[in-house]
Structure formats: C-alpha cells, structure tokens
Amino acid sequence: MASKHWIAGVVIAAAAGMGAWVYSGAGQSAAPQSTFVLLDGSTRSTADLQGKVTLVNFWATSCTTCVAEMPEIVSTYRKYQGQGFDTLAVAMSYDPPSYVVNFAESRKLPFKVALDNTGAIAKAWGDVQLTPTTYVVNKRGEIVKRYVGAPDFEELHRLIEKLLAQA
Which among 127, 159, 161, 149 is positioned nearest to 28, based on CA atoms? Predict the structure, then answer.
C-alpha cells in the first residue's frame, strides 16, 4: 500500500515538473522564421515582430479555452498597444477560414489574425498541437515565454511591462 502511494507521489511530482517545464517555455531563443498570411490577405514575417513586444497566440474557434481567454487577450492588447506591444492570433490549420473570419469580425478583434492553412507555422513554432499555446516575443525577436493553456494574465502583464521597459 505504501509503495502505491509512493509511486502515485512520483507520478504527480513528475507531472507537476513537466507542467512547470511546459509553462516556463523556451528560454530566450529566436522566434522561428515564419510568414503569416493575415485575414486581409497581407503578409507579415517574423522579422516584422522585431522592435515590439509581441504576443503570438495559437488558437482555434473550436477551442473553448481559446474563446474564453480572447477577451483577456483583447484587453491586454488594448492596455499595452500604445507602448510598443502587438498581438498576432494564429488560427490552427484545422480551423475553417470562414469560422475564423466570422469570429474575428463578430468580436471585433483589434489585432492581426493569421490563418495557418498548411500547419507550417504551428510546426515551426515548436510543433504546436495544443490550443491555446501563447508565446511572448521580446523586442529582439526572441521567445521569452510559452504558455500552454490560458496564461495567468496578471503574471503576463508583469512580464510585458518588464519587456517593454527594456531597450
């Protein structure tokens, strides 16, 4: 009986450790070179992210957590956009483009929304499969944080403020 509790404890500790590793993200590595096709047909590249602190959010209209966190992402964008902050929402390849367009228009998303029709962007950004997955990219174009699942928005705001204050 004691060994079952010990094994359960090890499994829980390992899962917690893995969760913390996933939560902590990638350290500071360069954001992968990607071309984002926006809903209006224009394109942006990873190079366009440099000079701003950018939130790159992989999401889907069928993801309840994604839909639930979107008002907070909008609020975060509005709070910091005048200080050199940007947001790019990347819809997953399995999300029908018409659903993405409808979602973005009906909710009046104020930031850029990209379609990842082929899945190449998600693959380049660490083979993203779970949504939402959100990256914070600093002014130098380096990934400084990755969140799998909804971020702790208070912590996210502190991180954004810290990154915005850096040269």
Answer: 159
CB atoms within 10 A of CB 33: 10
> Closest Cα partner for 52 from 80, 17, 71, 78?
80
Q: Is the Cβ–Cβ distance between 55 and 77 less than 8 Å?
A: yes
Mean pLDDT rounded to a whole number for the chain: 88
Can you tell me the distance from the alpha carbon of 52 to that of 93, in angstroms, rounded to the nearest whole number? 26
Q: Would you tell me how many other CB atoms lie within 10 Å of the CB of residue 160?
A: 22
Q: Which residues contact 25 (CB under 8 A, 6 or more apart)?
A: 135, 136, 143, 144, 145, 146, 147
pLDDT (tens digit per residue) in 8-40 = 333 333 333 333 334 444 457 999 999 999 999
CA dist 126 and 147 (Å) reads 12
Residues 6+ apart with CB under 8 A from 67: 61, 103
